[in-house]
Amino acid sequence: CHGVDLEGETPDWQVRDADGYLPAPPHDETGHTWHHPDQLLFDMTKFGIAEAANLPDYATRMPAYEGILEDEEIVAILSFIKSRWPAPVRQYQDDINRRFQEQTR
Q1: Are 49 and 41 within 8 A, CB to CB?
Q2: pTM for this one?
Q3: In angstroms, rounded to a whole number, what is the distance separating the alpha carbons of residues 1 and 8?
Q4: What does the pLDDT read at residue 74?
Q5: What is the pLDDT of residue 105?
Q6: How far is CA 54 from CA 3, 50, 51, in A?
Q7: Which of 37, 69, 80, 87 lies at a CB distance of 3.0 to 4.6 Å from 73, suitable for a disulfide?
Q8: Contact (Cβ atoms closer than 8 angstroms) between residue 65 and residue 46
Q9: Nearest-angstrom CA–CA distance, 80 and 47
């Protein structure tokens, strides 16, 4: 769904389709994945976006992978995605993680 090179489903990934769903976004530096802390990315993958973001009515085609992927597999996938980001993007996301951890202490 997110593309072989993490480029996303379509260039118009921020525009809902005729059914009201957003296309799969890119997970490269042109997307928004790196704007989120690791814990939210993990939770969205495992539990689904609606539950992870506490948006019960959020319309998405993204499945929840709980019971399909082990936690270690989710971490490996997210690590792969992050490994493809340029250094400044990784640093920005590291800063987000640091602030998130400080807020949740």
Answers
A1: no
A2: 0.92
A3: 7
A4: 98
A5: 85
A6: 27, 6, 5
A7: 69
A8: yes
A9: 20
Rounded Cα distance, 78 and 69, in Å: 12
CA distance 72 to 85: 20
Distance between CA atoms of residues 54 and 47, nearest Å: 11
Helix axes 71-83, 38-47, angle to 10 degrees: 130
Alpha helix ranges (H) inside 1-105: 38-47, 49-52, 71-83, 87-103
Six-digit token string for 104: 């949740």
The per-type count for the chain, helices as H runs and strands as E runs, is 4, 0
Best CA proximity match to 81, nearest among 25, 7, 6: 6
Task: Tell me the average confidence (pLDDT) per consecutive run of 10 residues in the chain, 105 residues long.
Answer: 92 93 94 95 96 91 96 98 97 96 91
